[in-house]
Design goal:
Blueprint (H helix, E strand, L loop, with lengths): L6 H20 L4 E6 L6 H16 L5 E5 L10 H7 L4 E5 L10 H5 L7 H10 L2 H9 L4 E9 L5 E3 L13 E3 L2 H8 L4 E3 L6 H6 L5 E2 L4 H4 L10 E4 L7 E8 H4 L4 H35 L3 E4 L2 H21 L1 H24 L5
Parallel strand pairs: 1-2, 1-3, 6-7, 6-8, 9-11
Antiparallel strand pairs: 3-10, 4-10, 5-8, 5-9
Helix pairs in contact: 2-11, 5-13, 7-12, 12-13
Length: 350
Amino acid sequence: MRYKFPVSAAMAAGVTALSLSAAVHAAGPEKLDVANTFNTSIFIGEGALRFAEELATVTDGEIELDVHNPGDLVPAFEVFNSVSSGAIPAGWDWIGYWAGTVPVTNLYGALPFGPSPEAFMSWMWAGEGTEILQSAYDQYNVKVLPCFISPQETGGWYNKEINTIKDFDGLRMRISGLGAKVLNKYGASTQLIPGGEIYLALERGRIDATEFSVPQVDQLMGFEDITKYYYFPGWHQSASWFSFIVNKDVWSEYDDATKAKFETACRATLQWSMAEAPAEQMRVIKKLEQKGIEVKRFPDPVIAELRKGWEEVRAEEMKNNPLFKKAYESLMEHTELVEDWYELQAIPRD
């Protein structure tokens, strides 16, 4: 006797199948190619791999990010435009690289005399930071997730001592963003060079000095082989934001639950970057000193003069770029609250 499947059960099964199909469709692409602006062998490029691992964990392996090194898909400086146009679906970047297209990213990538990474992180995720950045990216059809922050960078690698502000006059230096604009006021010739090309530029005398990242990253670049002095503090870059960017047409294919998983993986990667970096920098500095590198601080009068130069640049940026003004004022207001809290709780040391 043939069993007759109830019509109601059949209909329910059909509805369930359609629902599951819709859910799968709503989840979006299962695999995304990610163009990295940095090699994955260094800390700031490794962040993309960490993000991919975290995303795989929270999605039970249902979404895979295939992270490519610079040049594998597109050159490093073309990642943003390629994601914007849809030529590639996603990228991992240093936010400040896109200042020529989106000027406010200068603030996120390299803000001179800015707040601590902790205060910056608080503004980004608990203040207006991400909202303001996303508003700037919307016109380029790019979704941004700020997933990685590095601590304050170094002052750079030099082959001559910096004793007065006049020592910057005529100096050819690889430096990016707003810090470059400050040094230009003191006669320096600045240029932005991709990370993979800096060593050769130094070796061949195209530049006299360079800044790039934190010691943990710099030690892998070989700068200690062709320079003598390693300067601190990194006045030009109090914290550096790196992000996962994805074409918004691709992003819109994911349902809300999946988008939330991307954000969860992003926050986990941010926590990893903040926990991993600070102590490691001092271990690396000790190793560099053992190799003969002289670790020095800029003299206080030099820092004071650079701050004056920054105040001029900041006034110019705020006058010419309303969104920069909005972001800077919002960041400083938020930072003041964070710093006041820590000051109130400060316990004097013995």
